[in-house]
Design goal:
The protein is mainly alpha-helical. It has two domains: 81 residues, Multidrug-efflux Transporter Regulator, Chain: A, Domain 2, CATH 1.10.1660; 78 residues, no CATH class. The chain is built from six helices and three strands; from the N terminus they run αβααββααα. Helix 5 packs antiparallel against helix 6.
Amino acid sequence: MATATEPVTAEQAVSNEPPAGPENLLGIGAAAIHAGVSERALRYYQQLGLLVPACTTPGGLRRYSQEDLARVARIRELQTLLGFNLDEIAIVLRNEDRMAQICRTYRDERTSDEERRRLNRECLALQENLRVTVEAKRVALESFLADLDARIGRVKKLLAGPGTPAA
């Protein structure tokens, strides 16, 4: 399994382990190590509503499932890959959770065709909103890169200026 310096991916957390049963639940220390985050981070994610441990013992100890570890991996992925802050991550996770609910309802044989169309419209709206969020992040990154390129260009001009040998 991963160490504190090698966090698991969402896919690894889900696929490399058997389904969570009472014997497969991890305490907060082991979960933090497997997820590559601190115990404090797990508590903070719970405080923000980003993560809910699979269960809590009668003594108040948190127990985490492989599904919980996959959610932590998703949080870290959204932070590192897309640069989302925790508020943005909360929105993404709520949308993903809702889309999972929509899929379950859609697949239920008792769901009417009319309800399926409504669910499809809701799913589309969620995905379009997520795309707007990601697009805004992309535009901000492009602006940052353009500014950085301009700074690099200015420094290169200074280095290539009169009396300075070209590098």
